[in-house]
């Protein structure tokens, strides 16, 4: 499974960004997809994830500001990030869980999000 993420960049505090991640190469279907992030000198943390049925899960720190959505036909997820603050600065990683006889979690390369104060 290959994951192609896009949409990171530099934004001022209070601004918005939209991340996208497209999964390809799975012959058995994709289950949960989501986003993790890792800030400098901090552990990687879950930001949000979404099942193929549309059930979402968010970190408390982003609830009410971030929205994850999914297009199953395209195996693509989106993360709309509003009211960004400098604490959101991190490398954001897309993940996808392959279903079927060879299940596994796949990680994208990461996209940098930088929020200036």
List keywords for this structure.
11 strands; single chain; 117 residues; 4-stranded antiparallel β-sheet; mainly beta; 7-stranded mixed β-sheet
Provide the gyration radius in Å. 14 Å
**Low-confidence blocks of residues:** none
Write the H/E string, N to C: EEEEEEEEEEE
Strand content is over 45%
Secondary structure class reads: mainly beta
Tell me, what's the shape?
elongated
Number of strands: 11
Residue-averaged pLDDT, rounded? 96
Write a brief structural summary:
With about 120 residues, this protein is an all-beta fold. The protein has strands spanning about 1-5, 10, 15-25, 30-40, 45-50, 55-60, 65-70, 75-80, 90-100, 105, 110-115. The radius of gyration is 14 Å and the shape is elongated.
Can you tell me about this structure?
With 117 residues, this protein is mainly β. 0% of the residues lie in helices and 56% in strands. It is built from no helices and 11 strands. Strands 2, 4, 5, 6, 9, 10 and 11 form a 7-stranded mixed β-sheet that branches. Strands 1-3-8-7 form a 4-stranded antiparallel β-sheet, with no helix packed on it.
SSE blueprint:
Elements: E1 2-6, E2 9-12, E3 17-24, E4 30-38, E5 45-50, E6 56-58, E7 66-71, E8 76-81, E9 90-98, E10 104-107, E11 111-116
